[in-house]
Amino acid sequence: MNNFQFFNPTRIVFGEGQIKQIDSLVPESARVLVLYGGESARKHGTIDEVLSALGSRHVEQFGGIEANPGYSTLMRAVEQIRSNKLDYLLAVGGGSVIDGTKFVAAAVNCDGNAWQEILVNGAKNIKSALPFASVLTLPATGSEMNTNSVITRYETKEKLAFSSDLVFPQFSVLDPTKTYTLPPRQLANGVVDAFTHVMEQYITYPVNAKVQDRFAEGLLQTLIEIGPELLAKPSDYSLQANFMWTATLALNGLIGAGVPQDWATHMIGHEITALHGLDHAQTLAIVLPGILQEQRDSKHKKLLQYAERVWQITEGDEASRIDQAIEQTRLFFEQMGVKTRLSDYRITADAIPAMIQQLGDHGLNQLGEHGDVDLEKSRRVLEACV
Ligand code: NZQ
Ligand code: ZN
Questions:
Q1: Given the CA of residue 181, which atom of ligand 1 is nearest to it?
Q2: Which helix (H) or strand (E) holds 132?
Q3: What is the pLDDT of residues 334-347, one digit of tens each?
Q4: From the CA of 3, how far away is ligand 2's center (Å)?
Q5: For the domain that residue 334 is a member of, what is the CATH number?
Q6: Could you tell me if residue 3 is inside a domain?
Q7: Do 244 and 341 sit in the same domain of this protein?
Q8: Ligand 1 centre from 80 Cα, in Å?
Q9: β-pairing, 12-14 with 132-136?
Q10: Dist CA 297 CA 316 (whole Å)
């Protein structure tokens, strides 16, 4: 029964020491490209473990994928794959390496300009993709168990996303011990990102989805409970295991199935990263409280539910309970060490028109669960975030 993994519907291989499973999960004849980021995976021995698990297969490597993976860098990986006839990709890293690998997997068989075809025209143009798997070293994005990818084109300061069923990982190894080396900034980023993923799918309007709501609330409460402990004890297996599983479930499609979704915070945040280079989670910590305030009328019922069930806020009138819940959200991000104001990152109000311009250029003028976050609303949100 050692092929039990193939019947694992999550395609997640979880636990300490599981990298060795790669040997039984990657086809024997695969010509593999291992993709990674900067120093971390090599320095901490994860690459060596992966290479050892791949055994005698033909294996090449491609390092240097940036945090916020860059289009030009990834196209060099595409060239290597085409030249050397590689046919299986293995991402070792965080969301950036996994997202980058998804793009590479799709771009290899793309005839035209891959940026235009995949990111601008949309994933409908993707007809095939190379098979790939991942070894996760940073819980945050959920990329290890979803079909999304976000790519940056540094030359034009653009950051765009695509999603395709063809880039769902064959499997992902989640070994919590691989996260022990994460610096506080990345741990905090991961908690804030996962938290915001849940909020984007939860704080909309009620559709009587009791399971999705309670699942979302459980994930939020888990992050609130373990977030500060993780900063204090990054080498605690149980904490990291809970964190890893929470971040994966926060964006693997489960809590978002059958419910309205927002994503305005993410879309506005991507423009801040594209123009100013902030970490993804830093942008979310800035924008989410602003979106919740701006949209408090249309999100009224869910904000009250969030206040009561997640933060146990029951005192005061409805407006005050919502204010308290938004404030608790901001305080939680700050407690994690992620600043929540544009000015904390030396960005002033005069930078806002360029962000609005970019949103408009990318057609992001009907955001949110009702499509009512137009450019004017986005501008108000950003002005409130200074
Ligand atoms: O480059 P190295 O040296 O490997 O260092 C990385 C990187 O600098 C470091 N790191 C990763 N694992 C480590 C480690 N350092 C020590 N020990 C480890 N075990 O962490 C830094 C950040 O890594 P990155 O992969 O960029 O972080 P994250 O996982 O937060 O990914 C962010 C990217 O994902 C996108 C974001 O926009 C951003 O581009 N997103 C992807 C999503 C998706 N696919 O569904 C959804 C998200 O909302 C998000 O947009
Ligand atoms: Zn995110």
A1: 17
A2: strand 132-136
A3: 999 999 999 999 99
A4: 33
A5: 1.20.1090.10
A6: no
A7: yes
A8: 23
A9: unpaired
A10: 17
